[in-house]
Amino acid sequence: MDQKELKEKILAEIEDFIASEESFGDTAMLSIIPSTGDVSIVDGEELTEEEMENSGTDYYDVMDFLEMDQEHGTWHPDMEAVAEVAKEY
Description:
The structure is a single chain. The chain has helices at 3-19, 49-54, 79-87, and strands spanning 28-33, 38-43, 58-61, 66-69, 74-77. It is of the alpha+beta class and 89 residues long. The strands form two sheets. The chain has a three-stranded antiparallel beta sheet, with helices on one face. A two-stranded antiparallel ribbon has the order 4-5. Helix 1 (3-19) crosses helix 3. The chain is globular, with a radius of gyration of 13 Å. The protein starts with a helix and ends with a helix.
C-alpha cells in the first residue's frame, strides 16, 4: 500500500463520516489494518483497551481528521492530518 492510496482511503472514510455523522457515536475511530491496507470507521465504545493494543489494527480518533469551517458551521477533512498519518505507513 502506498501513501497516495492510503490517503485516498482515509479521505473517503472521513468524507463518509462527515456525510453521515449522525450514524456514528461520539467515540468514532478510524481503523487502519497495516497488513491489508483496509481502512474503516468503527465505534470506539465497542473496543476494549486490550483489543485496541493487541489487534494488529491502528486506531485514530476521527475528530483528529476534521476541521470546522467556522463561517458555515460545517466539517471538512483536515488534509494535513490525513497526510501525516499516511506517512507513517
